[in-house]
Amino acid sequence: MPKRHNAAWRSIRARVVATTIIIATLAVTFAGVIAYSLEHQRLEQTAHADLFTQYETAQMLNNRGRDPLTGAPFHSLDATLDGVVAGTISTASQGTLALHDGQVVAQSTNAPGFHLGRDTALIEQVSELAPDRSPRIHTITTEVTTYYVVTADMVVGHERGRLVFAQDRQALYKGLNDSYRTYVGVAIGSIILFGFIAWLAIGRLLAPIQVMQRVVQRVNDTEPTHRIPVRGDDDLSDLGRNINAMLDRLAKTFEDQQAFYDDVSHELRTPLTIVRGHLEILDPDDPEDASATKKRTISELDRMNLLVDDMMTLAKARRPDFARRRPTDVAELTDTTFEKAQSLGDRRWVLDDIADAEILLDPRRIEQALLELSRNAVKFTEPGQVIALGSDVTADEVRLWVRDEGIGIPPERLPHVTKRHVRGAQSSRTEGQGLGLAIVDSITQAHSGTLHLTSRLGAGTTVTMRFPYPREDTHESYPDRGG
């Protein structure tokens, strides 16, 4: 399993690096192609312009009819052609030829290795070209090279000759091609270096993901309490915090699940044993015994049903939809719950106070909690003793409480009574599962509230639920109303 996860992590790293290299390669290639195309076009336009300039110079010398070197008049076609060629400018890749009857009568002096007059295929092809009325670029390819060519026909008397202005195309682009071969080599080396650096950098950036993977694996295998070490405020840090929060919720879910199993094992065993015992000693031939056994069995089954309801409430307490909050009138909730609580037992019911406030609560759950507290109070009081309900509001909280004048809770047990299966003093005198205060505490926490208990042995207990109240408000106190 770890090897597979590490391979997956490396695969993510490789894919990110590969994508980055591809993007970088496309960018470098695009830039190189565009730059090469623009420079190629510029050189071509410059070469064409030079050829046209040579053509115009030849026409100008022909029109003057004088040798540009001696100033003497041209006395023949060959002299004219020779004089015009002498007046043109040649370069290492550009030159001029003068043809008369298909024979070279003059040519410009070029750099060593570039001799237009030796390329017989060029001479043959330009000799066959039709006269141009205006300068025009021809592209001619021979075994030697490829040329850009402009021709100009010269006429002296009855003789016709042809001037050929040629540009070696391969020589024209040689410097550009050499430069871009160097560019390609440098670009490839740069991309390889870039890929190496990207591999290291992305590996460092993805290192937290590898840490997260190892932590999750350890949580799955042997260490459910292990968490991701989080540093910084970037996206990966936020992801780590969210994963930790998720792991906390999962751990709490597992704890609640185990607690639910413990509740079922702990609480259902007794009533099931009682039912089994009654059924085992049942005398089916004795109607009175059968009727009594039936009543006792139904009583135990009812108690089991209540127990299951309590356990389901605790199991659901961590769910986000456990408390469906809505604006709730605290005074109305207090008054309604007080009326319902009076039917729980023959006690002296008192309404201490009523808060005039509205707060976001789930009224069904809060009523359930207050009635659970009232039910507990009935268990630990005698007929005629006081059980009081009330609510009030301050600048920053709303409080709802149930107090009684019962037997109270020993100080050493007070911090633990909200835990499951922990009961107060003399709990053996009452029936119950020890889940009541745990349910109330869960409901209170689901509303972002806190549960507070005060108690004195022989004087009674007060259990208060406190909920945040975000704005200042006032409340009215009403006189005590006896039940």
What would you say this structure looks like, in words?
Its EC number is 2.7.13.3. One of its GO terms (cellular component) is plasma membrane. This is histidine kinase. It contains nine helices and 13 strands. With 483 residues, it is of the alpha+beta class. The chain has three domains: 2-174, 2-Layer Sandwich (Beta-Lactamase); 235-316, Helix Hairpins (Orthogonal Bundle); 326-482, Histidine kinase-like ATPase, C-terminal domain (Heat Shock Protein 90, 2-Layer Sandwich). The strands form three sheets. Strands 11-12-10-9-7-13 form a six-stranded mixed beta sheet. The two termini are 67 Å apart.
**What is the CA–CA distance across the termini?**
67 Å
* Largest beta-sheet details: 6 strands, mixed
User: Percent range for helical residues?
Assistant: 40-55%
CATH architecture of the largest domain: 2-Layer Sandwich
Which structural class is indicated by helix and strand composition?
alpha+beta
* Gross geometry: rod-shaped
Short description:
By secondary structure, the chain is α+β, with helices and mostly antiparallel strands. Helices cover 52% and strands 17% of the residues. The protein has helices spanning 2-64, 77-87, 120-127, 169-221, 235-280, 287-316, 330-341, 363-379, 436-446; strands spanning 94-100, 103-107, 138-141, 146-156, 159-168, 326-329, 348-351, 358-361, 386-393, 397-404, 450-456, 460-468, 481-482.
